[in-house]
Amino acid sequence: MNEVMLDDEATYAKYDPSGMGKRIRELPTVILDAWQAALAFELPDDYKSVDKILILGMGGSAIGGDLVRRLLLNESKAQITVLREYNLPAWVDERTLVIASSYSGGTEETLSAFNQALSTPAKKLVITTGGKLLDIARDNGVPAFVFKYDAQPRAAIAWGVFPLLNFITRLGLAPDKAAEVAEAALVTEQFARKIEPSKALPVNQAKEMAYNFYGRIPVIYGSDLAAEVAYRWRTQLNENSKHWAFAQALPELNHNAVVGYEFPADLISKMQVVMLRSNHQLDRNIKRYQITGELLARAGARVTFTEGRGIAPIAQMMTLILMGDYTSYYLAMLNQVDPTPVEVISYLKGRLAESN
């Protein structure tokens, strides 16, 4: 392997013709763009009466719901649930706000659940760029927040997070987050300058992490607000890097996964564990990180850590996400693959369409 590969501009020209790297670098700007666009969107006043929020979505359109649910877990007056299923749960009622989030507007699981929601007394809202979902919303008088951002759904992460966060807070269901959003954009921009492609090894931490993952199986651990971020890392490594990866959350993994570090013994040298750390983790989970790291080291596993930046939870979360996104991007370069196409998913959707 060429150790200077990630510091060579030609690498990115060759393996990133669609510009995934540019989308990743835009995150700080898009955070503010998405927040401002959401501020201009009019919400029905009676939506303030809900006590449950159900977010429908899949893949890159669902992770935004996961992140918002975590951010507001201890603050939201409404229970927030993310549904990655075809069928609507039976508990949906007139005090439920059903939000269908689909970048393309054509996600079949989301369309199925949303069509079922139309026959319920629930309040409804759509977040999309267009497609069939927008047509259904307009035909049924459902408010639709429509945005334009030319990217893969997973690269539109800010559009999945910040309109949701804006709407929930503006409905009075959680405290205002405007100041925290501004901090997140600023800190994420500062961090992006340190890990963008122009920043060379050894100071570029994301490039270093990608080399740690190269030829190995990444296992991402997170707790508290980093639990959902660990899942984001895993999916980005899958889709951008075309790479096996796994994610687990503490404290749950301390009740099962830690027992499995023993076998198969010949795979241990192929594992690379990274623990995502935040200044908003519980003291007990920090202690669990320490002990879990000791258990991994005892088993002979490679372990490293990475930290969130900033003060508020949103900044911590978004900088950890940026670190994961860039790591997956650099690993794609090392794997010599274009990070943008997801041909296997396209194939799967095509096969499913044949059975309709």
Automatic annotation (TrEMBL):
Listed GO biological process terms: carbohydrate derivative metabolic process; carbohydrate metabolic process
Listed EC numbers: 5.3.1.8, 5.3.1.9
SUPFAM superfamilies from the UniProt entry: SIS domain (SSF53697)
Domain SIS: 43-178
InterPro entries, per database record: Glu6P/Mann6P_isomerase_C (IPR019490), SIS_dom (IPR001347), SIS_dom_sf (IPR046348), SIS_PGI/PMI_1 (IPR035484)
UniProt keyword list: Isomerase
GO molecular function terms listed in the Swiss-Prot or TrEMBL record: carbohydrate derivative binding; glucose-6-phosphate isomerase activity; mannose-6-phosphate isomerase activity
Enzyme category, top tier: isomerase
Pfam families attached to this UniProt entry: bact-PGI_C
PROSITE patterns reported for this sequence: SIS
Family of the protein in this entry: Belongs to the PGI/PMI family.
Protein name: Glucose/mannose-6-phosphate isomerase
